[in-house]
Design goal:
This protein has 124 residues and is α/β, with parallel strands linked by helices. The protein is 41% helix and 19% strand. The chain has a 5-stranded parallel β-sheet, sandwiched between helices.
Length: 124
Amino acid sequence: MPDKNVMVVEDNEKNRKLMRVVLKSKGYAVIEAATGEEALNLLKNQKPNIILMDIQLPGIDGLTLIKLIKADAMTKEIPIIAVTAYAMKGDEQKILETGCDAYVSKPINTQELPLIIEKYIKKG
């Protein structure tokens, strides 16, 4: 599985580090972006197998970023999993309608996250 790349778009360094440690321990290569703008720049040259997307980002927010990624022919097929602290009723539906393939709430379940990622990478 060393050729499996996961992009983590998360502005919180502690959350990014947690995801990096969990994913690297499972053999994934991790591409990190702290902002939506940074993620878009990275996607010009790299095509991850899956994207973990925080919804609350500075600048371009996660929902807008998802729409931009899904509107681009080069990146529209990449599965996106929203990783967010949003837990209000209706938020999950709104996020999934934006184009996300799945929704994971924070705090992240470090046992579950790799299983969810593997499920969506295998679909692709």
